[in-house]
Amino acid sequence: MKLAVFTTGGTIDKIYFDKKSDYEIGDAIVGPLLEGMGVGFEFVVEELMKVDSLDMTNEDRRYIAERVNVSSYDRVLITHGTDGMIETARALSVIQGKTIVLTGALQPAAFAHNDAVFNIGGSVAAVQTLPNGCYIVMNGRVFTPENVIKNLEKNRFEPLKN
Fold it and tell me: What domains appear along the chain, each with residue ranges and CATH number?
């Protein structure tokens, strides 16, 4: 497998210096994480932006889609902020011929207790096994963009109730 990894910022890459300071989006964690885990596949990491997904624009989403479209890789993992992830996944769901998985974290990867590594691991497994399409992998589940919500009260992603 060959995997293209695009990073966009979000909580997964946030760095906090102390309680009095605001966060900064630091260097992407996904590349060093995959290298450190000794994964058995080829991957490339491209930083597209360092944006909190609350600040992401439609122009940003068009740029992400453009980069995914022109990538020679048919397996794509995107790290993304959780607040705008669903909207971006919906924008990317029109792309044909690729398996695209978006993931992120509800706690920064720099924190001792975080969901970043778990979500990236689940995303790597999902991008290898799912058919072409666009998916979100969070909280140990695989979702399609049209059947997921972020439950702010429970701080997790869940399927829409039908």
Answer: 2-158 (3.40.50.1170)
What CA–CA distance (Å, rounded) separates 112 from 85? Answer: 24
pTM comes to 0.90
Reported as a single tens digit per residue, the pLDDT across 94-143 is 999 999 999 998 876 666 567 888 999 999 999 999 999 999 999 999 99
Per-residue pLDDT at 162 exceeds 60: no
| H/E stretch holding 156 | strand 156-158
Nearest of 42, 48, 47 to residue 3 by alpha carbon: 42
Secondary structure (DSSP) of 7-28: E--SGGGEE--STTSPPEE-S-
132: CB partners within 8 A, 6+ apart:
74, 96, 97, 98, 99
Q: Looking at the chain, how many residues does it have?
A: 162
